[in-house]
Amino acid sequence: MALASLILLVLVLAVLAVWWEARTSWLQARWFTDLATQATYHLEPGPNPDARHPGSGPYDLRLGYSRLESMVEMAQARGFEVESQARLSEGFHYLLDQGAFPIYREKDQAGLVLLDREGNPFLKSLYPRQVYPSFDSVPPPVRDALLFIENRTLLRPEHPHQNPAVEWGRLARSTVDLALSRLGSTRNVPGASTLATQIEKYRHSLEGRTASAPEKLRQMASASLRAYLEGPNTLHRRREIVTQYLNSVPLSAVAGYGEVIGISDGLWAWYGTEFDEMNRLLLANPETLDEAQGVRRAEVYRQVLSLLLAQRRPSFYLASGSGQEALRTLTDQYLRLMIRDGVVSEELGRAALEVQARPRVESPPLPRPSFVDRKAQNQIRSGLLPLLGVPQLYDLDRYDLAVETTLDYRRQRIATEALVRMNDPVFVREAGFAEVPMLHRGDPSRVIYSFTLSERTSQGNRIRIQTDNFDGPFNINEGSRIELGSTAKLRTLVTYLELVEKLHDDLSPLAPDSLRALAVPRRDALGRWAVEYLLAHPGGGRLEMLEAAMERGYSANPRERFVTGGGTQVFSNFDTTYDERVLTVSHGFQQSVNLVWVRVMRDIVAHLMYGSPTSMTRVLEDMGDPARQEYLARFADTEGGVFVDRFFRKYSGEPPDSILPILFRERRLSPLRLAWAFRSVAPAAPLEDLSGFIEVFAHDARVTEAALAEMYRRTDPEGQSLADLGYLSSVHPLELWVARFLLENPGATRTQVLEASRAHRQEVYAWLFRTSRRNAQDIRIRSILEMEAFNEVLRMWKGVGYPFDNIVPSLGSSIGSSGDRPAALAELVGILLNDGLLLPSSRVEGLHFAVDTPYEVSLRRRPVEGTRVLSPEVSAIARNALLEVVTEGTGRRLRTALVAPDGQLVPVGGKTGTGDNRFRVFAPGGRLLESRPVNRTSTLVFFVADRYFGVITAYVPGPQAGDFSFTASLPAELLRRLLGELDLFPEG
Known about the structure:
By secondary structure, the chain is α+β, with helices and mostly antiparallel strands. The chain folds into five domains: 1-37 and 162-237, no CATH class; 253-354, no CATH class; 406-484 and 822-840 and 874-982, Beta-Lactamase; 494-617, no CATH class; 625-770, no CATH class. It is built from 40 helices and 21 strands. The strands form six sheets. A seven-stranded mixed beta sheet has the order 1-2-17-16-7-3-4. The chain has a six-stranded mixed beta sheet with strand order 15-9-8-21-20-19, with helices on both faces. A hairpin with a 7-residue loop joins strand 16 (844-849) and strand 17 (857-861).
């Protein structure tokens, strides 16, 4: 009997102990506190080889933590290195090994933050958009509604050590009901999750769901550990749980907004109610509100209550018609219960029953930020996608990531405001911009301006300003191909100097007798001049020969007809006072005289055509050369193979339906040439397909249906040789062949393409040299040779940053007919400023992921040495030419633009260019039938001292361009004023 009493006493004590522990959590508090407080982390320099990353819970995916390892690897492969990374304590590793979620103070709000060069944020994409900063900021009606629905005992103060992760009575009832359901009971099984456990579930469990009993235990254990992270007393933590839940509860997704997180975003996305309005009304004294405000207060209260109830099945309750009706009924039921239990006042509860709150099918649009204000930010965001391997901006904006950029945002705002002012006709007139030759004609609001400024540093080029005044996504600096006029003369000058330099390096080691014995082709004027110069200046250095090359004379006569680009062209000078003069290269560059540069380009092309020791033109001059056929065959096989390989790489890996668009994009072909190219590649394509391509790729052309049908008939490639097709289309014949072969043989390898092209390579070259109709054949030979020479020009241009894969094979490319991008021109000036070194122009200096979390990692761009693409001597000569444009030429407005603190003028160099781009129709014989404006551009690419460089552009697209007649004086004057406002060289 005594033993039974003892056992009963022990059982009673055990039950009492369990009951006491369930009420007070005394033992749990000590055990969980001991475990949680050992889970620490700290930041150390360098990468962490034992870094731990979370699973694929919704929170970890949304903030980018789950992808952090791959993003860091991507950034490292693209020039960044880990500067510091978080290290976890042994206790933290232990908890992770036991299956707990990472225990730390999680963020309710995070997102992409862009920092300027001073560390000041200029873009914050935070999600949710608004949160409660503290428990005290939550309106009591919202707090009380949440607790009544989810966790009524959570904030009771009588047990300060209470574990908020478990309500033991609720858990017991749920367990019993679950067991009965397994035995066949049909009664509903209520959930046992507390607010703390729910947060763990929807943040860290896969898809935010509880898939099993072990997963539920994992959630409860993690919530318990998190509750005791700051010690055994959980009163403060329990209040935080209320705030955290309201800030982070998932509320499905809505069209026009995306994933909805937290009450603040839920109110806006589902009801169009501002968070601030809701808080103001529910915090207000009801007696101070008028009738309309009282009704609105009841409406927003009902909206909040419905969202708190909808979280159980948010997609059903919020996004479906039947679910919304069920949510209305459920909300009414809870309102009546809350009125009965005194959770809500009778007045507010009854009023909420009288109003309706129906979720929207589409989120109201958020205020659209100005594209003008966000242009640089959007460029940086777009650049981060490939850098980090992130698929879309939607994801990037939600990642917990701070980005150190190179932008000088204070000066960026100054520049943006200056460009925006230029659209105001009153400002334009009062500021003196309405004078000739600037904006005396045309509507100033139609002009788009763009401005980029980079700084040369020891770590590379840093973009400080990138802005424009166009309120749209179009980026003139980097997203366009526009004719920038005479700025092309800078590329032509650099190419000219490179060839002179190579001639010096090849010929200067030769003795005078050997130089005299050289058989320089008659057409190679540049090669002949080099020989003559070295004979007259034995021992002359590279720099001296480059300086002499700048003093070579060229006629500016516009009356010559030039055979180029597959036809005959004429060119004119902008300033006719130079028409009868002979100018040096230097003077022609200063004054931007077109005909000088057309003739310089002719010398460049002729040297590339005739000056090579293996030039095919040497064999053409001697029709009786016995090695002619053998040489031509070898030339065709070798050179043709180079072109086939180049064109294969261009199209390789592309789907068949992309081949024709790739062939035509960035090409400016007449409708007839486009038709020849189209039918050469896809001879069986119907007329309708050709019509579609004419409409898309024949820029601004107007072709009637009858003319199109006739064009389709005339361009039948049957019976035409491959070389003829290349001539008729102005596309390299081997490119036509490769495009057709890959279109008909998708997935063909490089080896297969080269093998299949052997006979066609011979065809393209060999047929031209039969003796019949030699004059006509020679014209075609020279056309092909000119195209190949321009391919070499293209290679040289691309070596210094030309952004496109083709240029117009015409002497007009020297004055802008091939188009360019302002940012690419600025990159060329950066090369010259860096003595011929190509340094990357960066916008991003550092990446800081997951700051103040156990996943924190900081990366910084590695220093780069740069790639030499030009010699220091060529760079120095070109820089000096740019300086002379400002001191003596078309950029004279900038001569006194900047004065240093010591009173000295700051040297400024630049090159101007104006493009009046028109669609022209000519009659046979060259008579102009129609001239229609397409766009007008004026550009100035510049550098300031040895530190800054950039580009400024004025651009008018469309037919309205004909209303304007501005020249490079417009961007030059705007830049002059901008440099004064930007204060690039402050004292000290």
